[in-house]
Amino acid sequence: MSKNSSGQAKKNSASKAVFLRLMKNPIAIIGIALIVILCLAAIFAPFLTPYDPTAIDMLSQFQTPSLAHLCGTDDLGRDIFTRLLYGGRYSITIGVVSVVSALIIGVILGSISGYFGGQIDNILMRILDVIQALPSMLFAIIISAVLGAGFVQTIIALSVTTIPAMARMMRANILSVREMEYIEAAQSIKCSNFRIIVKHVIPNAMSPMIVTTASRISANILMATGLSYIGLGVQPPTSEWGAMLTAGRNYITLYPHLVLFPGLFICLFTLGFNLFGDALRDALDPTLKH
After folding, report:
1. 153 alpha carbon, distance to own chain's centre
2. pTM here?
3. For burial by CB atoms within 10 Å, which of 25, 114, 190, 252 has the most?
């Protein structure tokens, strides 16, 4: 019991140290603030705007930003600010769910490949080589073209595209962890491979994965925007940020606010995750500890 308590205390102490380092970093505070504000705005959208995101009002089309319509209206008279708030639900969900799904699968594949090695490692790595032979965006386009455009299809396409990078990184982490003394100690007392992987290998190889996950969410949101822009992602009238960019591109010269505000929201959210990811990497970097 004393050894378990001591180990748990060390983990809590390390987690607390990382948290304190993170909170002392102004870059992390800015990133977290951007993420939290946009997420809360999407969640509480019905309380922040009186308009319906799908209500058409042809008498109010193409209005410029004003007190009545903070971001103006689109070609169908819909309030852009309202659609941005509701659209955040789709865009943020796409980014988070696609990366978390890829992380889970990537951790499983990478752990199996890195821990067991041999023929299993060769087979899995060759499959990932085939997938990674194509650029990520091109591969996502192919999957979306096969599955069709839509919210769920976009998540699947981005998840499959992200899995190889996650699996390879996890494998690299496992290769450096599996030779540690505590792994040999667990093997010497006849712990099962499943228990060793779940209890000892994965927890000690996850720090770099967490940083990658934070950065990858912003990348997947940008990819989802690209898919929507070429007609293979979330489609209008759904108020997803990328779909809003697509809908407004035909009017960009006369009514630039139709693409300006969706682009701004995309930039702010991706900036938030990039800042948070960089700060988290610094907080977890042992060479920066004093």
Report:
1. 16
2. 0.83
3. 114
Question: CB of 155 within 8 A of CB of 94?
Answer: yes
Residues paired with 73 in a beta bridge: 79
Q: DSSP for the chain?
A: -HHHHHHHHHHHHHHHHHHHHHHT-HHHHHHHHHHHHHHHHHHTHHHH-SS-TT---GGGTTPPS-SSSTT-B-TT--BHHHHHHHHHHHHHHHHHHHHHHHHHHHHHHHHHHHHH-HHHHHHHHHHHHHHHTS-HHHHHHHHHHHH-SSHHHHHHHHHHHHHHHHHHHHHHHHHHHTTSHHHHHHHHTT--HHHHIIIIIHHHH-HHHHHHHHHHHHHHHHHHHHHHHTTSSS-TTS--HHHHHHHHGGGTTT-THHHHHHHHHHHHHHHHHHHHHHHHHHHH-GGG--
**pLDDT tens, 84-138?**
999 999 999 999 999 999 999 998 998 888 888 788 888 888 888 888 888 888 8
CB of 224 closer than 8 Å to CB of 95: yes
Question: Which amino acid is it at 46?
Answer: P
